[in-house]
Each structure stands twice: as C-alpha cells, then as structure tokens.
Amino acid sequence: MGLICRLEKQSAIGSYRQDLFANQPLIFISPRSEPPTLMLEKLIQLCGGKVCKTLRKAEICIGQYKGKRPPGSRHLSEGWILDCITQHALCSIDNYRID
C-alpha cells in the first residue's frame, strides 16, 4: 500500500509524471490476482498504463487466469508489474511468463 501512496503523492506534484507503462499495450488484470486487481490497476494507471476490463481487448494478461486467452497475448505474473515499478524500468517479460 505504501508504494501506491508514494506514487500518488509524486503524481500530484505536477511536474512529476510517471510514464513507465505509457507505451505498453492494454493490460488486463485477472480477478484472481494477488495483490488484488484494483491495487494493480491503480499502480498501472499511476505509471501511465492503460487497463481494460475485458481480456479479449488486452495484449497483456496479468495473474492467474483459467479462461481462454486471445492468440498472441502475453500472460505474465503480477511480479512483472511490481518489479518494473520497483526497478523504475521495464523488466524482460521472459522471467514472468505464465503458461
């Protein structure tokens, strides 16, 4: 929770803008995700990313998801979001793939 508060405070300053996920495609967060979906959605949005509520529109799926995924979509663990934010850089998705 502290990470969200820090990002909110920084984004409220005005001149500061976190755009870590700004160039990423739409991201879908699984309802089964841990940390909870709403927390991850807020983190992504605070970092300039776009979240969608339907998987068929997304190119990235975060968290465990048992349903059918669109061909070509990337299925990644929640750790990818958290590690990218912690390291202030996009991490290689290879270490976070879920099959």
Folded structure, characterized:
It is a single chain. With 99 residues, the chain is of the alpha/beta class. The protein has a single domain, classed as 3-Layer(aba) Sandwich (Rossmann fold), CATH 3.40.50.10190. Helix content is 31%, strand content 9%. It is built from three helices and three strands; from the N terminus they run H-E-H-E-E-H. It has a three-stranded parallel beta sheet with strand order 1-2-3. Helix 2 links the parallel strand 1 (27-29) and strand 2. It is globular. The model has no long low-confidence stretch (mean pLDDT 87). This is BRCT domain-containing protein. Residues 16-98 form the BRCT domain. InterPro entries: BRCT_dom, BRCT_dom_sf, Microcephalin-like. It comes from Chiloscyllium punctatum (Brownbanded bambooshark).
- Cα(first) to Cα(last) distance is 28 Å
Please estimate the helix content: 25-40%
As an assembly, this protein is single chain
The CATH superfamily is known as: BRCT domain
How many separate helices?
Answer: 3
The tally of beta strands, per DSSP, is 3
Question: What do the pLDDT scores average to?
Answer: 87
Uncertain segments are none
The total number of structural domains is 1
Question: CATH first level: which class?
Answer: Alpha Beta
Based on Cα principal axes, name the global outline: globular
- Helix and strand run: HEHEEH
Strand composition percent: 5-15%
Largest sheet: 3 strands, parallel
What is the CATH topology classification name? Rossmann fold
Domain BRCT: 16-98
Protein name: BRCT domain-containing protein
GO biological process, one term: mitotic cell cycle
InterPro entries: BRCT_dom, BRCT_dom_sf, Microcephalin-like
